[in-house]
Design a protein that fits this description.
Radius of gyration: 42 Å
Shape: elongated
Structural class: alpha/beta
Strand order of the largest sheet: 9-8-7-10-11
Oligomer: single chain
Number of helices: 15
Largest sheet: 5 strands, parallel
Number of strands: 11
Order of helices and strands: HEEEHHEHEEHHHHEHHEHEHHEHHE
């Protein structure tokens, strides 16, 4: 403990006996005797300052002096820092390959020029605060290749984490972000263009690149609308040969866009089936126009102009989407009601067949309903029971049939059991209502022509007879050649027996020299031929009219949820009719309705 005389007034100083006291002589008059020993001081304590400073030695300084020196140095450095910062702020930002407005506060990080391919890029202000955005060259072809959209989302996640780490100056584990998480470090494309970081439409140097019209866009050149505040554009292009997944995703995307206040557009420029308007009427046209195509981004989800495609479905309709819109308080299929309603809203707005097909479907529905009508005195009419059978390359969920198909007898038996149960106590005096049961109709739709010829469904009616997918017909036996050693050539017939296979679809319209079962890679750059598009259009229209009749005419529907067409039929029936009143009947194991699969 350090003691100070100034703070210890009660401290008694007692003369200590000198260590080197000379012995006095016997005589007080001796010349060697002096009084120096009387004023000798004790040696300095190792823990106390000397009471009398030594000659020529300064008094030790206190710690307060060191603090004052440090404050003085810090003040000088602070003035120098702010002085240089002021000088730096007065200078314009270095341009990034093109002219920028004076006083812009952002510059590119790492590169002097933007890349000529779509990619996320980092930017930073003059104080070193990092942000990021996505650069798509305005002259780039639209839409991007499907894999490019998926790559952008993957790279976005990496860049976002890198920027977040740069703010905290340390790398840390990034937790799961919610579906509507807004990244404060992200800069939208339009904002980046306003700061001169991205070139915008003025960078287009090729006159060959023109923006294609989107479905839902007003193509009247006499009226020029402003760019929509928020949009969602759905890209129809997919590697899936079937229509079911695309329709489910399209409908759900429309419902989600409506929920988020986005105007909805559709791009069909590379759709395998051709033009959207060959099958459907155009959706309602908003009083605004879509943004420049390079501003449409697949992620993050909070961008102003979102683009949705099959390759980015896991980001748009993945786990984070389910966390928000599944109801955790409900059980089983009832958890899916919000997602079901998204798809239902899209169906109501977008499933409007071309005028000719819609007229046929409406007449067919009236024809089927007329068969179920009974005289007015009867209390109950018959039922329309729809059956949807999916074969081809779609296998059931149920384990015992995973390598084959659900037996046709299960469909038929379920239908008859349903009719017996419905009319068992609705007849006179509470008995069986045989008349209503006899006036009930079983309507069948399948991708396999052989199903219609099965003995099990000999009394069933086709959903539609406008377009039929033919099976392979046995050719007539050729006449023997009159020339010895020569055989007459017989062209191999091709049919849809067995159901819808992707390989068969991609081979439509090929020259006859190519095997019909050859699989055409869906990523091919070659556009389909006119003949291929004509055949694909017939296949698509047949499918759409099948589900239109089943979904709108049936009181009950029996199908397998492993098929996307089965799930679409539930949406077309509506939540109350299909789920709450049990009109939707699955016979493919203990599985339930779910929406978009990714």
């Amino acid at each position: 403990m350090i003691l100070s005389s100034r703070n210890s007034p009660r401290l008694n100083l007692r003369r200590a006996t000198p260590y080197n006291v000379e012995k006095a002589p016997l005589s007080s008059t001796s010349s060697r005797f002096n009084f120096n020993h009387l004023i000798a001081s004790p040696p300095p304590s190792p823990s106390l300052p000397a009471l009398i400073p030594r000659h020529g030695k300064p008094v030790p300084t206190s710690s307060r002096k060191y603090i004052r020196v440090l404050i003085w140095i810090f003040g000088v450095l602070s003035m120098l820092y702010f002085g240089f910062s002021r000088i730096q702020l007065d200078r314009p930002v270095k341009a990034v390959g093109w002219a920028t407005n004076s006083g812009d506060q952002y510059e590119m990080v790492g590169e002097a020029e933007l890349p000529d391919f779509p990619t996320p890029v980092m930017i930073a202000d003059k104080r070193g605060r990092a942000k990021w955005t996505v650069s798509i060259p305005p002259a780039h072809e639209f839409p991007l290749e499907p894999q490019q959209y998926a790559d952008i989302c993957t790279q976005n996640m990496e860049v976002a984490m890198h920027v977040a780490d740069s703010h905290s100056h340390i790398h840390k584990e990034h937790t799961h972000k919610g579906y509507y998480h807004v990244d404060p470090n992200f800069m939208d494309v339009a904002e980046a263009e306003a700061h001169g970081l991205l070139p915008g439409p003025r960078a287009k140097t090729s006159t060959k690149v023109t923006e294609k019209f989107l479905v839902g866009e007003n193509d009247d050149g006499l009226i020029v609308y402003d760019v929509c505040e928020k949009t969602m554009t759905f890209v129809m292009e997919t590697s899936d040969a079937g229509l079911g997944k695309t329709l489910m995703m399209l409908w759900t995307a429309y419902g989600l866009a409506e929920k988020e206040g986005r105007h909805f557009f559709i791009d069909d420029s590379r759709w395998a089936y051709g033009k959207y308007t060959q099958f459907f009427r155009a959706p309602p046209i908003p009083k605004c126009r879509p943004p420049p195509r390079h501003e449409m981004l697949p992620c993050p989800h909070h961008v102003r102009h979102l683009i949705v495609s099959a390759t980015t479905s896991e980001y748009t309709f993945g786990g984070a989407f389910n966390e928000v819109y599944e109801d955790p308080r409900k059980m089983e299929v009832f958890r899916q009601k919000n997602i079901f309603e998204f798809a239902r809203r899209g169906y109501e707005a977008l499933f409007q067949l071309s005028l000719a097909d819609e007229e046929y479907v409406n007449n067919r529905i009236l024809e089927l309903h007329s068969k179920t009508l009974l005289p007015a005195e009867e209390s109950t009419n018959g039922l329309v029971v729809g059956i949807h059978v999916r074969h081809g390359d779609r296998r059931p969920y149920e384990f015992q049939y995973k390598d084959s198909y659900v037996p046709l007898e299960r469909f038929s038996d379920t239908a008859h059991e349903l009719l017996n149960k419905t009319f068992n106590h609705t007849g006179p005096n509470g008995g069986e209502n045989k008349l209503a049961q006899e006036h009930s109709v079983i309507v069948l739709a399948s991708d396999d022509p052989e199903v219609y010829e099965a003995e099990t469904f000999k009394d069933a009616s086709r959903a539609q007879e406008q377009i039929k997918l033919a099976g392979k017909q046995q050719p007539n036996t050729p006449k023997p050649s009159m020339v010895a050693g020569m055989r007459n050539f017989v062209e191999e017939t091709v049919g849809w027996e067995g159901g819808f296979f992707a390989g068969m679809f991609w081979s439509l319209g090929k020259p006859s020299s190519i095997p019909a079962n050859a699989v055409e890679p869906p990523s091919t750059k070659l556009p389909p031929t006119v003949e291929a598009l004509r055949l694909r259009e017939l296949v698509g229209r047949a499918y759409l009219m099948d589900i239109a009749v089943l979904g709108q005419a049936s009181d009950k529907i029996i199908c397998t949820v492993s098929s996307m067409g089965c799930k679409l039929l539930a949406v077309m029936m509506g939540w109350e009719k299909a789920i709450e009143r049990g009109g939707f009947i699955n016979i493919d194991g203990d599985f339930e309705w779910r929406g978009v699969s990714w």
